[in-house]
Amino acid sequence: MTVQVRPSPILVIGSANLDYLIRVDVGPRPGETVLARSMLKAPGGKGANQAVAAARLGGDVRFVGCVGDDNDGALLMRELRAEGVDIGDVEIFTSHHTGMAVVAVERSGQNSIMVVPGANFALTESRVAHVLGRAEPPSLVVLQAEIQASIVTAAVEQAASSGARVVLNLAPFVALPARVTALCDPLVMNEAEAEALVGESIASLADARRIARELRRAVRSVVITLGVQGAVWADPDDDGVVPAEAVPHVVDTTGAGDAFVGALAVRLAAGAELRQAVGIGVAAGTFAVTRDGAQSSYAMASDLEMNEHVAG
């Protein structure tokens, strides 16, 4: 099935980082030093990643965030603009350095990430309120948790009160008031984040589906991504599983979750049902792990035309 999207207003509020991708055979254990095989600098940050992923699939995307007045910030701004993302609401700070992430990518493709927020933590409630309070509010607002939790809380509440649909990717996991997560449609988490939220382990696909069903009683809808197993979803009417296609060789999992969220947002903004949006999200995430880096690995609509699939 060919992916059909139409530009729709999507506002992404979140982080922008410069990623330092360090390739190692196996990551170091505590107290251990290992030699890296290579290092690459590339645009990243969950907010910027999701904005780029959505823009590449045809979304009409505006990004709200902060960068430092430095070379890294200038690079991130150029890359976002080149991808077709509206950066008119990105603030530049002389008093903060641009956020950065050190990403260790093992030969298996798995990664571990350390983030230094920098200017990302300079985003204020008043700035977000100003953007959301415009005469023509966005139809869909996407957030993550690499900005301060108080900003996430304020943005979710104001966006929902303005009538926008809120997609919150609770990554990395932070504890938010129940009244905030209740407004999310959907609340998107990976397996580890869902475990942190509910306080129990997810040992199987059946566990994930059960927890998604339970969570939908407290949120408008929920999605739990499960890597190679795909994703589970639940909304007020139904729930289901979308399996991921097998990948012969995983190159790099960095940013795959952001590819999922960006694709999901585009389909939701175009009026798709949640199960359909999860289908394209799984396809986008699967595509991303076959290539290096985060934003550089994201699909265009034509890349996914044979990969969209939905399961019950």
TrEMBL record:
Catalysed reactions listed for this entry: D-ribose + ATP = D-ribose 5-phosphate + ADP + H(+)
Q: Which GO terms describe its cellular component?
A: cytosol
Q: Where in the cell is it found?
A: Cytoplasm
* One of the protein's GO biological processes: D-ribose catabolic process
Active-site positions on this chain: 258 (proton acceptor)
Q: Which PANTHER family match?
A: RIBOKINASE, SUGAR KINASE
Q: What is this protein called?
A: Ribokinase
